[in-house]
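<instruction>
Derive structure tokens from the sequence

<record> Sequence and structure tokens follow
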Amino acid sequence: MKKLGFPRKRFGQHFLQDNQIVQRIVAAIAPQPEQHLVEIGPGKGALTLPLLQQGAVLDVIELDRELIEWLKQKANIFKELSIHQADVLKFDFKQLVRKGQRLRVVGNLPYNISTPLLFYLLNYANDIQDMIFMLQKEVVDRLIAAPATSDYGRLSVMLQYHCRIEKIFDVNPNAFYPPPKVDSSVVQLIPYSTPPVEVMNQKHFAQVVALAFSQRRKTLRNTLKRLFDIEDIQAVGINPKARAETLTLNEFAQLANVVTLREAM
């Protein structure tokens, strides 16, 4: 029988063990008694227990049944804790929303699902107050990247449209057991009540962004030819020979709105 709480490679588990880093993350979250927190991937409770000790009302979502048993043993004195054994990429966050109260979602995210999970959480942006995550530093660099930089891509555009993003601090691999082969960063994402640019149809926006970055080294005239003629791209003041990585958030919005207006005609 495998020892409870031992990290599993197939789940991408790296357990946070540096107490100073834990305290910095808890301080960044700064839970208040009236707030409803949701922790993704609690692992061995490095964040879970300090948050509960500060009086947080906390739901945790964990896939690993053995870790759930570990948490039940360690946190059974806290009535404010609810544990959900589930695949977070299929979890319905709306079931946790209480009337008039949005969720605060936190966690040391498994690196092997972090990017799809960020996109998945955008489906619940209206129900989320903020998100504070530990992520691979490379992913955070992409989240905050500016146009015309090597880190700027689909993830940058889509998350910057939906959220205000701020990197809080970096974390050395030695803060984990086992240590990952990469550095990590803690980041806060706050969903906008009103996005920074006007998009008439979010599905069209997502489609344009995905197509534009589908072949990163090719120009817009090639990647977007399913949607636009060269003249269409020029009409909104964008060079068809430009690459997706040079476009601003507003320029992507302009292209998406062309698709929306054309379909409405």
In short: The chain has two domains: 9-191, 202-264. The radius of gyration is 20 Å. The first helix runs from residue 19 to 29. The beta strands are 15-16, 36-40, 57-62, 81-85, 103-108, 128-136, 163-171, 176-177, 184-191.
